Amino acid sequence: MNVAFYPGCSHHGLAQEYDHTSRLICSHLAVNLTEVEDWNCCGATAAHSLDHDLSLALNVRNLAQVKRGGHDSVVTPCSGCFSRLKTAAHEIRHDPDRLAEISRKLECPLPENVEVRHLLQLIVEEYSLDRIRALVKKPLCGLKAAAYYGCLLTRPAAVTRFDDPEQPRSMDNLLQALGAEPVTWSYKAECCGGGFNASEPVIALELGQAILDSAKNAGAEAIIAACPLCQMNLDGRQGEMTPPFGGKYDIPVVYFTQLMGLAFGYAWRELRFKKLIVNPRKLLEKYCLL
Amino acid sequence: MIETYAIRRPEAQESPIARQIREDLGIDVARCLECGKCTGGCSYAAGFDYTPRKIIQLVKLGEFDKLLSLDALWTCLSCQLCVDRCPSGINIPRIMDYLRARAHRANSNITHKNIEKFYEIMLSDIKNRGRISETIMMIKYNLAIKNLFANASFGKKLFLKGKLKFFSPRTHNIKTIQPLFRRLSEKDGQA
């Protein structure tokens, strides 16, 4: 299977391990990724916050680059990029006049009907759970994991057209196929405030902490993320959050691709677990997964 | 989303800003049922000066100056929960984007200057490089808000994990990016 790959700006820095494991899992599943040539930033969240047309234009260029590379389908591991690319593709379909104006300015052909998918979406749509189960070499037996979807992966439903916006299940099912025990919790699709991580950390800390509390109360030992911003907020800011009844948070926040790699038999080092701020080594050793 | 339907109402009852939103965005706030599901679900309503339902009311009432100086415009997370839960399919995040952009262009009384600054820095990075460099962006932001040690402990953790990169790839054909921004400044002239 051939698809274009849009990594997003964080893949060079803050989410190197996510980028690496995304490519690893895709090659394991025989998904042939070709990086979109000379892509640009999707502009989340600054562009749409200050100028909607600019946000549209930036992503029309990206979609045009996908077409130029001979692809009709693009996949991205970042929920923020996914949301912006998909919104542009959606508006192209419903407002072709505006697209024509922008593509004239860009001097590029109309990128019509480009399919935009999040990596999680591609995996659960293209591979049946039975096929995933067949690939598992080291089941994650007993690991209690909270599948965290965040806000932009499933919302707004009219645009994303993926899973249930209120009660998504796709990642829970995937984790179950890997042998883990997904916990039932109510904050799986709440916003973590990661977009304000740098500019207004107070908000990011408040919302992030609510998610950690909810996961902990549900008995989760790890939170599974599908977005670099959510992961960075929940993992990196954990030390600055104070639990209501004292102590410290110590709950690893790992990418779903890392867990898939672990179940598929890849080694600790190859999956770059060391890049995470809260070290998951103890947890994984507890279940003899290393 | 539910189908749009036209509501017959005397023209005089529609406030100027409600009319602009209907004409520019195709969103008719008259369809608001005032049920409050948007506010009930909102990720940060507790921190807003005006909750989403009240903001729609302000649009209906035509309180334009009030709307442009709302603190909520800047602390809204664009998490898209309100639009998904709205029984009338009113795209509130899009209205927030619209009002925020106008507040930005009009240089009105913005309460969260730091968030506006962050967005501006990010956009200038995209304009100059095509992609953003998180590290450079953070340094520029700290200089702009005149607090060199903002996010210092967080930054230190990232640095120790080798996640802060001073050199990151850029978009080569930057000539295709910049025309998009000229559009932005054209609008500045109009405002």
Could you please describe the fold and organization of this structure?
Chain A is globular and about 60 Å long. Chain A has 290 residues and is of the alpha/beta class. Chain A has helices spanning 16-28, 46-50, 52-68, 79-94, 96-106, 119-126, 129-135, 157-160, 170-177, 201-217, 228-236, 256-263, 281-286, and strands at residues 2-5, 32-35, 73-76, 115-118, 144-147, 181-182, 222-225, 253-255. Chain A has a 4-stranded parallel sheet with strand order 2-1-3-4, with helices on both faces. A 4-stranded parallel sheet of chain A has the order 6-5-7-8, with helices on both faces. In chain A, helix 3 packs across helix 4 (79-94), helix 3 packs across helix 5 (96-106) and helix 4 crosses helix 5 (96-106). Chain A folds into 2 domains: 2-119, Glutathione S-transferase Yfyf (Class Pi), Chain A, domain 2, CATH 1.20.1050.140; 137-286, Rossmann fold (3-Layer(aba) Sandwich). In chain A, helix 1 links the parallel strand 1 and strand 2. Helices cover 44% and strands 10% of the residues of chain A. Chain A is built from 13 helices and 8 strands. Chain B folds into 2 domains: 11-106, Fumarate Reductase Iron-sulfur Protein, Chain B, domain 2 (Orthogonal Bundle), CATH 1.10.1060; 113-181, no CATH class. Chain B has 191 residues and is an all-alpha fold. Chain B contains 11 helices and no strands. Chain B is 54% helix and 0% strand. The chains are: A alpha/beta (290), B mainly alpha (191). At the A-B interface, helix 2, helix 3, helix 5 and helix 10 of A face helix 6, helix 7, helix 8, helix 9 and helix 10 of B.
